[in-house]
Design goal:
By secondary structure, the chain is α/β, with parallel strands linked by helices. The protein has two domains: 2-230, YjeF N-terminal domain (Rossmann fold); 237-241 and 257-513, 3-Layer(aba) Sandwich (UDP-N-acetylmuramoyl-L-alanine:D-glutamate ligase), CATH 3.40.1190.20. Helix content is 43%, strand content 15%. It contains 22 helices and 18 strands. It has helices at residues 7-19, 25-43, 46-49, 64-78, 96-107, 121-130, 149-161, 207-210, 222-228, 237-240, 269-281, 296-302, 323-330, 346-358, 368-375, 393-400, 404-409, 411-422, 457-470, 475-497, 504-509, 511-519; strands spanning 2-3, 55-60, 82-87, 111-114, 133-137, 165-168, 190-194, 212-216, 232-234, 258-262, 286-292, 307-311, 335-338, 363-365, 387-389, 425-428, 434-436, 442-444. β13 (335-338), α14 and β14 (363-365) form a beta-alpha-beta unit. The N and C termini lie close together (11 Å).
Length: 528
Amino acid sequence: MTYLVTGQQMRELDRLTIERYGTPGRVLMERAGAGATAHLLGAFPQLLSDTRKTSVLVLAGKGNNGGDGFVMARLLRQRGLACEVVLAAKRADVSGDARRALLAFARGRGRITEVTRPDQLPLVEDKLRSCGLVVDALLGTGLNAPVRSLAAGLIALVNGSGRPVVAVDIPSGLDADRGQPLGDAVQARLTVTFGYPKLGLSQYPGLDYVGRLVVVDIGIAPEALATVRPTVGLLSPETVGRFVRPRQPDSHKGSFGHLLVVAGARGKSGAALLAASAGLRTGTGLVTLAGPESLVPVFSAAVLEAMTLGLPERADGSLRMAAGALRAALQARTAVAFGPGIGVSADTLKLTRWLLKNAELPLLIDADGLNCVASQPDMLREASQPVVLTPHPGEMARLTNTGSAEVQANRLECARAFATSFRCYVVLKGARTVIAAPDGWAWINPTGNSGMASGGMGDVLAGIIGGLLAQGYQPAEACQLGVFIHGRAGDLAAREIGPVGILARDVIDRLPRSLRALSASARPALRP
């Protein structure tokens, strides 16, 4: 697993590596600058094709981020490239390892221009016009307030220059933890980050500023990682693939669980059908689709491979609370997916509470089931089994009694706070879906695309995770694997039929291929 760290965690990893485990700071800085330079040259090979015509402008701050930039400037000059530095400070303000890097660049006759006032911005603008590429080493991960004055002016000039930008560690102006631009942020073509990727580089809107992200190993001590203990990971094919279980030759349908999907109401049968189909395509041995009695003929005709079960209903075609029927439906099942298309009523609220208290099986709650929970979130504390919630931002806002904008601005914190408070698993859907566990761990998913922004995708995910729970996967495994293959199946659909017009059933059809591809790339995961 690739760990994601906050800015403070990364600074602590640096400090421990230097002070406790004996790697000098200047060595870490040299490794960072050398790694960033190598990636810069690899990404822009034309720089070396004619060193007489191409120049690089490094914009450096007075801190260690600027020090990394000075190392890069020195190494680029050693490769024969014209490279100069604009220092957004006075030389005397640069100290420590950054000062050593500055002096090493200066000893090689490197040109440094101090810019300390906004009225000097036209000078920088002229330099930007004449360069071929910009290295952004202005502001690092410690930024915690909106950029103003000189820094804001420099960022605006860089973004308006039209020149490709390589950001050092993080695009200047970006919040390292939340990915929010603090006023404005540099729009990079390539971001080279050091040690471990920062949380803000793996979430929107930060991803819009990062460009292509690469990570340079600078030699952070393993003991430092064990001390800091980051609890957020970025999902990858290698680590998620290790969850995929091989199938024995003598397996039968009873070997792979029995998912009960409780879903649907008159006019909302599609959500139930998609969830059941997704559960089957994920490899569940048996799926029973339970819904209002009047919908059984629809269910039977649409999903031939699923069994059906009629439940008592009201005159309007919605589910009616009937404990006896629910208890019978749970017999011989191994997991329950509840909520798609059931509507919100007094009966469905009672159904939700009854399942939480009485279904001694892994339980996934989605869609209208979540809206029922939102009316009385404390009912989650009555659960007798692991519970997985799969809200979109609007549903998460109702669960937390906030607004969608607030949820979107704090996706990780919002999901993790709810999961730890109510001892459940939260899958907060959307671009870069967040998975949060009750023990405080969280994961961010990199798969999926904007073509999946269409009706029914959430019902598919509910069926996928429900099916994995039915097969015996632990909740954290089911959530990680389910979210990853859901997004990867969407990516396959986007490549094959285009990013516009993808339907939920297109994703369902590609789930077996998504699973098969993961099996070959598995490797053991890391967890401190």
